[in-house]
Amino acid sequence: MQLGAFSVSLAVKDIEASAAFYEKLGFSKHGGDIGQNWLILRNGETVIGLFQGMFEKNMLTFNPGWNQDAQPLDSFTDVRELQQHLKAQGIDFLAEADEDTTGPGSFMVLDPDGNPVLVDQHV
Q1: Buried b (16+ CB within 10 A) or exposed e, 105-114
Q2: 78: three-class secondary structure by DSSP
Q3: Whether the predicted pLDDT of 1 surpasses 90
Q4: Which of 4, 65, 69, 90 is 20 to 30 A off residue 108, Cα-Cα?
Q5: How many CA atoms lie within 13 A of 39 on its CB side?
Q6: What's the distance, Cα to Cα, between the start and end of the chain in Å?
Q7: What's the predicted TM-score (pTM) here?
Q8: In CATH, what number is assigned to the domain containing residue 56?
Q9: pLDDT per residue over 37-72, tens digit each?
Q10: Segments forming the whole domain that contains residue 51
């Protein structure tokens, strides 16, 4: 089961201060719009997202269909297939992908310690 590209999505209080901090650690802007209160930063293969006012907690994010450069993959496990697999294992969902659709979709689960895990397919 392939979950796709991985990043950590951080719920930040001040996106400009957070961006400046992570730039000092060697991260550079890879995407997003600071005017809309979100940025994607990279340092090598490591990707973090900074999100101000969009969610309450930091979360693990996986993007089926993308590589670490946010480029589409020729072959990947669809988010709905991943969801069905996890449902069959008894995982509870906070949000679910519509299984009657194709293309983009997402679901969210919590790990045993309450950490959100977002699986967000853009292709």
Answers
A1: bbbbbeeeee
A2: coil
A3: no
A4: 69
A5: 19
A6: 17
A7: 0.92
A8: 3.10.180.10
A9: 999 999 999 999 999 999 999 999 999 999 999 999
A10: 5-121
